[in-house]
Write a structure and sequence with these properties.
- It is built from 11 helices and 10 strands.
- By secondary structure, it is of the alpha/beta class.
- The protein folds into 3 domains: 46 residues, no CATH class; 146 residues, Rossmann fold (3-Layer(aba) Sandwich); 73 residues, no CATH class.
- It has a 6-stranded mixed sheet with strand order 6-5-7-8-10-9, sandwiched between helices. Strands 1-2-3-4 form a 4-stranded antiparallel sheet, with no helix packed on it.
- It is globular, with a radius of gyration of 21 Å.
- The N terminus is likely disordered.
Length: 303
């Protein structure tokens, strides 16, 4: 959240310097006041832009996400009348407020901060990072809890991205991930179209979808009111040209853009993800309410 003059500095901000590590040599970074951070060992500098330390190329392979989170900064944030992000967070991580309160939590792929806001509201001290390569910025054996919701399937190698997180957990810490499901094949045509749409400039794709999403959504709603033939025709059109069907127009547009803009978008099964967790030596594994949601615990240190 933006810091105002009335707000006090976060307790996490004061000790963030102890958490961060140089990407080149692994040394603890030193604050360079308003400029960012500098490594005392290899002298590599990390600039701070709009109050956020930058450790990797901001565009990298995730340029479309930068566009969408600036365009829809507040669309998914909870407020007094809506607690959808809170509900989704519980379903996709199987975490509860009492498990995060007072804990140091790493949000891998924080985007515009949708779930970081929930975890913070629950009393956690949250460090949010974006792009999987940025995980190397954190000290090892650091976090009580690491979660990643709807992010790692957008990396070139989802398995490697998940497994890379274990070393940042404290012994006894919890790792929770939510990934796209490979069980339902509704997404086949969106995968086909994305071969072309991910190459578009985000602004161009967004402009096309601003027209296409309302057209296909309203067509779907209208056809479903036609007796007998309407519903199957609506289903066939949606199968070939999928758009999100949430009632709220901005959320519908955001999620549809998220389907068609990424370069990478893999789908997975519980069997796969449990095997990854077993490879990492995780124990006490559970599934969440909304597939594919898996959490597990890093074994505590042996006495």
């Amino acid at each position: 959240m933006p810091t105002t003059e009335e707000q006090l500095p976060s307790p996490l901000a004061a000790d963030l310097q102890d958490i961060l590590r140089c990407l080149s040599c692994g040394a603890t970074l030193e604050s360079d006041q308003a400029e960012g951070f500098v490594c005392p060992g290899c002298k590599r500098a990390y600039s701070k832009v709009n109050g956020i330390a930058r450790f990797v190329d901001a565009q990298h392979y995730a340029a479309s996400f930068g566009f969408q989170w600036h365009r829809y900064q507040k669309t998914q944030l909870d407020h007094d009348e809506v607690r959808e992000s809170d509900r989704q967070f519980r379903m996709k991580t199987a975490l509860r407020p009492e498990e995060l309160k007072g804990k140091l939590v790493l949000d891998v792929g924080c985007g515009m901060g949708r779930f970081a806001e929930v975890a913070t509201r629950w009393g956690a001290r949250v460090v949010g990072i974006d792009l999987s390569a940025a995980a190397e910025v954190a000290a090892k054996n650091l976090a009580d809890v690491i979660y990643s919701v709807g992010v790692l399937h957008h990396t070139p190698d989802c398995e490697a991205a998940v497994k890379a997180l274990a070393k940042y957990l404290k012994p006894g810490g919890t790792l929770a991930v939510w990934l796209y499901s490979g069980y339902n094949k509704w997404y086949r045509f969106s995968d086909f179209w994305r071969r072309f749409t991910h190459k578009m400039k985000p602004q161009t794709l967004h402009g096309i979808l601003k027209v296409a999403v309302p057209v296909f959504y309203n067509l779907n709603q209208g056809l479903r009111r036609v007796p007998l033939v309407g519903p199957p025709v609506a289903g066939a059109i949606h199968h070939v040209f999928p758009v999100n069907r949430q009632k709220e127009p901005e959320a519908r547009m955001l999620d549809t853009f998220d389907w068609y803009s990424p370069k990478y978008q893999s789908k997975h099964t519980y069997e796969q993800v449990f095997r990854w967790y077993e490879d990492m030596g995780m124990e006490d594994m559970h599934i969440g309410e909304f597939s594919i949601a898996v959490r597990g615990r890093k074994p505590a240190k042996r006495a």
